[in-house]
Design brief:
Helix content is about 20%, strand content about 15%. The chain contains nine helices and twelve strands.
């Protein structure tokens, strides 16, 4: 029997097409909405000011992991819109970029990521896919430039141009594509953007009425009525990088509550992220880049076999910490980056109530629903 998560298309199915609402307009600006019960059959321009939705598969709301949650455990079901920039490279036999370069399938990675977050949150997060859009084109950069195929392929060489390193114009993209309108109508709170290297995405940013800085600066000036967490994923990479993106989102949101991380024990967040190299014998869980046992001076260290004392398991008791420390090294998470990030996320507090006016469930600060 085929094993496939709910809410995702088969990888071997033909693209769905349906008329009835008409062809996609030349521009998606203003009131041009994307409705989940209708599909576009579109061809045309390739910029985000005239997005071509080469294949759109918009799905009704259905939980991907409804069978995973523990009985009686509160859950949240954030609604997700997935936008995949996957241009057709005409000069290379009309192959899509992902297939041409032999990069990872974004649908498969999205499934893996959703399952990893679900399991790391002990069933608290049950993502629901509200829509999937695949675009034959490139997003506009913050100077308005949109790649041609030739320009983009040059970005993959040492002679890349200055437009390669520029970020996208998030506000223009959200407003010009009607995504905020769609998110407002369907209560979407997460946007997963997919692209290749140099597409210009932050790892994690936030739009909405009161956006905060997560991995990147807040996206201001949009019509999104609620918090919209925007993840920038790269299909050249894998699950490890996606989970690191999410870990940076965790850091941004929790530091907004507790303040910037300091290497001491003055706040619960500081204790959680404390490294043994900060205060020997008093380590917590670590950070997105550094495990609790990271070597002095290391910038990325999540596979270290050195054993140190850690209070990380005690955070499963939060806020009723016992003060217990245990000996830990990378064998606790399998000595892999994915294993570490899942282990780190799993120990984020997720109990009910408040302590000193702050939620005991830190996931509620990180994952938003409306």
């Amino acid at each position: 029997m085929e094993s496939r998560l709910k809410g995702f298309p088969r990888h071997d199915r033909e693209p769905l097409r349906q008329s009835g609402w008409g062809a996609a307009p030349d521009s998606l600006r203003g009131s041009n909405l994307i409705y989940p019960d209708q599909l576009w059959d579109a061809t045309g321009a390739r910029s985000t000011t005239g997005l071509v939705l080469f294949v759109i598969l918009l799905l009704g709301v259905a939980p991907w992991f409804s069978g995973f949650a523990s009985a009686g455990r509160p859950t949240v079901a954030p609604r997700v819109l997935i936008v995949i920039f996957n241009p057709i490279i005409e000069a290379q036999g009309n192959q899509r970029l992902v297939e041409l370069m032999g990069w990872s399938d974004p649908d498969s990675l999205s499934q893996e990521y959703a399952q990893a977050i679900h399991e790391s949150s002990a069933g608290y997060v049950e993502y629901q896919v509200e829509g999937r859009i695949e675009i034959d084109g490139y997003p506009a950069k913050d100077n308005g430039h949109v790649f041609t195929d030739e320009e983009y392929m040059e970005c993959l060489t040492p002679s890349r141009g200055f437009n390669c390193v520029r970020l996208i114009d998030y506000t223009d993209f959200l407003e010009g594509s009607g995504i905020c309108t769609f998110a407002n109508k369907r209560k979407v709170t997460e946007l997963w953007l997919w692209g290749g290297p140099w597409f210009g995405f932050w790892e994690a940013v936030q739009a909405g009425p009161r956006p905060i800085s997560t991995n990147g600066p807040p996206i201001l000036g949009t019509s999104c009525k609620w918090t919209l967490d925007i993840m920038g994923f790269n299909y050249e990479r894998g699950l490890a990088e996606m989970l690191e993106d999410f870990a940076h989102r965790v850091e941004g949101n929790v530091e907004h509550v507790y303040g910037h991380r300091l290497p001491d024990e003055t706040t619960p967040w500081n204790r959680f992220t404390l490294l043994d190299r900060d205060v020997p014998g008093r380590g917590g869980c670590g950070t997105a880049h550094l495990a609790v046992n990271a070597a002095p001076g290391a910038e990325y260290d999540r596979e270290n076999p050195t054993t140190v004392a850690s209070s990380c398991p005690d955070f499963l008791n939060y806020p009723d910490l016992t003060g217990t420390f245990v000996d830990i090294n990378c064998s606790a998470w399998g000595c892999t980056t994915v294993g570490y990030l899942e282990w780190w996320l799993h120990h984020l507090p997720r109990t009910t109530g408040r302590t000193d006016g702050k939620l005991n469930n830190w996931w509620a600060y990180i994952v938003h629903v409306h």
